Amino acid sequence: MMGTVTKMELPKERYGLRMNHRTRKQLWCWAFIAPQLTLLLLFTAYPIVMSYIYAFFDWNGYGSPKDYVGLGNFVETLTDPIFWNAFRNSLLFMVSVVVIQVPLALLAALLLNAGWLKGKVLYRTIYFLPVVTTTAVVGLVMRFIFGAYKGVVNEVLIKLGLLSAPVDWLGSIDTAFMVVVLVGIWKSFGMKLVYWLAGIQSLPKEVIESAKIDGASAFQLLRHITVPLIMPVGSVILLMSAVNALHVFDLVKSMTDGGPAFRTDMVDVYIYRYAFSGNGEARVGFASAAGVLYGLVVMLISLAFGLLVKWTGGRSKTRL
Amino acid sequence: MSFGKKRKSAGITVVHILLITLGIVWIYPFIWMIMSSFKTNSEYIVSGINLLPEKFQFENYARAWKTAQFSVYFWNTVTITVSVVAIVLAVCSLTGYAIGRYRFTGRIALISVITALMFMPKGYTIIPVYTLVNKLGLNNSLLGVILAEVGGAHTLFILLFAAYFRGLPKELSESAEVDGSGFVRTFVQIMLPLSKPILATTAIMQFMWTWNAFLMPLIFTLNKPELRTLGVGMYQFVGENTMDWTGMAAAASISLVPILAVFIVLQRYFIEGVSGAIKG
């Protein structure tokens, strides 16, 4: 209302200034965007382009890249069994985390949203606690908790009679991966819990109420109302969980550094090893090629989940 | 009827017992870490699952804080986190305001670029970021780490700000302009104070990420111990002092206790902020 009134009250002679006024607003808009745009171009767009260029050079990171090797780095990556091992581990880690963590977090969220449960805030706080902690530090603390000698886990399991001798959880080929997955699930569980809670709380209350009035049991409510309605949010949570899990780095680097015998090696750790190896033999070009290839795989996986989001979200307004 | 009620309350008790047991297991690593930091090294080695120290030792903290330089790492982390949060708040609110409130030439293109950058396969962009910071001559300063940390596509935050500013009534800025307030003053004095919920959400999430960042600070401080952050300092400490268990526990506590304290005080806003950002 007010807008139209002011326009009408503008004196005629100021109309010449109106174009000017509009241009000035445009300039202000771009001035507001400029800082963000500068940072974005320098630290996101330029690095993306450069990582593709580096991938075609044999380069140790010093000076400028000169030795053009064409697809050499890509061929080498694709024929390196250690790369495929890391690739398989990354996928396995992602699948384990997504399959175990996401449904359990949904269960916990349904429970921690129930009207009859007291102390919800305290429980949510406790389960969210690992999320806010520095992963690298957590990884190091876990080294001691799962330590072979006098590690807490061993002590407890021996006291309970479940183990007869201490196990070197992180140093043994059979258990290291499992422990990394367990800690990974523990670390980010609270985040998924909060995502699910947000999803559940955004469901239309009227639908749930009317189903209750119609005499739906708790299970029927869950099966026919809550789960179908929450599917669109759920697929976004799946997407985010998967992409995050595919880029696990801090936890592995600090807990096992990829060992023992590359059993917990992940692609991000593999790339780091080549890009920043301490003894002056960094292979930046090769690491970039591995990064580019892996980036494409992650994008394909995101795309698949993105289609799932679109498919499940088609009939619902709930979206992120 | 009363039998059913009894069964129901028994069920609730069972759920509580389960949740509490799981909760104790959940936070046990934190309790263990803090308790270990008060033990002597020899006590630590034999103590196993015994949590309580015989006598609370504080020299582990003194050792970690002074000798192992954790005071330096602590202030580095604070400097980086505070700067990154401040810069991200500034640039994202400015961008969100322009996008959400105005139709200007290139607006759609800009939104597309910001969104696309979030989904572009980044490869290992850390390498070019590192070489770029070197080229800018910032490799020996905290500023390098700060710039590298704020340089990401903060798509989520920008879109949150844009949606929020778009939702504010048009009359607000128009009447301000009639009263003679310019573009910048309208933003600073009227719009920005109104966007407190988004400012808080952005601050909280960015704080969490930056305080916990590892890869970027690790790379930028590989040869510069004086620039390490707490996480990196802790990591290097373990590599250098494989015998000082309780010193490590103290160092870990120094790294984690501040963020845990911030979280416990602000936990309601923390969790609401995060879930608010997803609900969008």
What is shown here, in short?
The complex is a heterodimer of chains A (320) and B (280). Chain A is 70% helix and 1% strand.
Helical segment count of chain A: 13
Share of helical residues of chain A: 55-70%
Question: What is the global morphology of chain B?
Answer: globular
Strand-pairing-aware structural class of chain A = mainly alpha
User: Which strand order do you get reading across the main beta sheet of chain A?
Assistant: 1-2
How many H/I helical runs of chain B? 14
Report helical residue fraction of chain B: over 70%
Element order, helices and strands of chain A?
A: HHEEHHHHHHHHHHH
Mean pLDDT of chain A: 85
Order of helices and strands of chain B: HHHHHHHHHHHHHH
What is the β-strand count of chain A? Answer: 2
Poorly predicted parts of chain A: 1-8, 12-16, 315-320
How would you name the oligomeric state of the polypeptide chains in this document? heterodimer
Give the structural class of chain B: mainly alpha
Major sheet characteristics of chain A: 2 strands, antiparallel
Query: How would a crystallographer describe the biggest sheet of chain B?
Result: none
**How many E-type strands of chain B?**
0
